[in-house]
Specification:
Layout lengths: L1 H17 L3 H12 L4 H7 L6 H40 L18 H15 L3 E4 L3 E3 H4 L25 E3 L7 H8 L3 E10 L11 E11 L4 H16 L5 E6 L4 E10 L16 E10 L1 H6 L8 E8 H9 L12 H4 L3
Helix pairs in contact: 1-4, 2-4, 5-8, 5-10
């Protein structure tokens, strides 16, 4: 057995020194030192020897194993060093080449604008939440004072998930009730996320778009607080003072409801093609939160009032960057994205 062991060690050392890849080295190691390797098989045969031979042969096998293991480790270092040397010789980088102005990294315009919106609201003390894309009929409709007969529940407007009773969120307002019940008053929060409507797609309509919802609930909240909040946010976004005006509007989850327009930041209200020569840009729906919605959220409407608003983030991006077609946002056009 000692002669066989000596022959095995010599052959193994020759094979190891000839290897040039780490994969081949691992395979040979398993073939020699593995569970069913040639050296392991010799070690298994020691049990059949006499007690005197067991000591001699067992010791010799263990010493052989140590030398072969060391040979594997040395050859692994040789292989890795050669790989590094080859890379240094063949992979050349000209460090004198001027740095390209295009880093290859571009934030989508929706992401850019959302970051500006969130930054503005954070400085006003708002918490930021992300809306659920799949929600329940209760959160999307019932909790928002939208009755069973409301047309928004029709298949023409809403994507229903068959057999579940759930829907793809049609509005970020579906998070209002969740936040009210989990946080309680007072609340200052904005909710951003992707929403879905069963609509025909054209330059100004999409079935998938982004919204930003805002809610403030505290004692003695009025429309004056809403007006200040929206004016501050819009002035931050456009980098100049923006004025807003409110017109009566109807939304089942607010009372009173208002339609909010803001003065065109590009012509300062004198009239241009962006504002269709009116000096004003239609923007969002808002109002004071309906008592039924507060009550459904576990908040006493006799003690607290609040306002809510919601706007299409895609529309704000189109205005800010003068993008003429909403369909660009869903199209992975590299030439379009590289502009931002």
């Amino acid at each position: 057995m000692l002669h066989t062991l000596q022959s095995l060690e010599q052959a193994s050392l020759i094979q190891i020194s000839a290897l040039t890849s780490e994969v081949a080295l691992i395979e040979l190691r398993n073939a020699i030192l593995g569970k069913n390797g040639s050296l392991t098989e010799l070690l298994k045969g020691v049990k059949d020897l006499s007690d005197e031979d067991k000591k001699t042969v067992g010791k010799a096998i263990n010493e052989c194993k140590i030398r072969i293991t060391a040979a594997f480790e040395v050859q692994l270092v040789v292989i890795k060093n050669k790989l590094i040397a080859d890379q240094l010789a063949n992979e050349f980088e000209d460090v004198t080449t001027p740095v390209s102005e295009d880093t290859g990294n571009h934030l989508h315009p929706i992401t850019r604008t959302l970051m500006k919106v969130e930054d503005s609201f954070k400085r006003m003390g708002f918490d930021c939440y992300e809306s659920n894309e799949v929600t329940t009929e209760y959160w999307n409709f019932d909790s928002l004072n939208i009755p069973k007969t409301h047309p928004a529940r029709d298949m023409q407007d809403t994507f229903w998930l068959e057999g579940t009773g759930n829907v793809l969120a049609t509005q970020t307002s579906s998070m209002q009730n969740i936040i009210m019940k989990s946080k309680g008053a007072p609340i200052k929060a904005i909710i951003s996320g992707r929403v879905f409507r069963n609509e025909d797609i054209d330059a100004t309509h999409e079935n998938t778009f982004y919204q930003v919802e805002g809610i403030v609930i505290d004692k003695n909240i009025t429309l004056a607080n809403l007006k200040y909040t929206l004016r501050t946010m819009l002035s931050d976004i456009f980098g100049r003072e923006v004025f807003i005006r409110m017109r009566p509007g109807y939304f089942p989850f607010v009372e009173p409801g208002v339609e909010v327009d803001f003065s065109c930041p590009f012509c300062s209200g004198t009239g241009c093609k962006i504002c269709k020569r009116s000096g004003w840009i239609e923007f969002m729906g808002a109002g004071l939160i309906h008592p039924n919605v507060l009550r459904e959220g576990g908040i006493d409407p006799e003690e607290y009032t609040g306002f809510a608003f919601g706007f299409g983030l895609n529309r704000l991006v189109m205005i800010d960057y003068a993008i003429p077609d909403m369909r660009y946002f869903q199209n992975p056009n590299i030439a379009f994205l590289k502009q931002f």
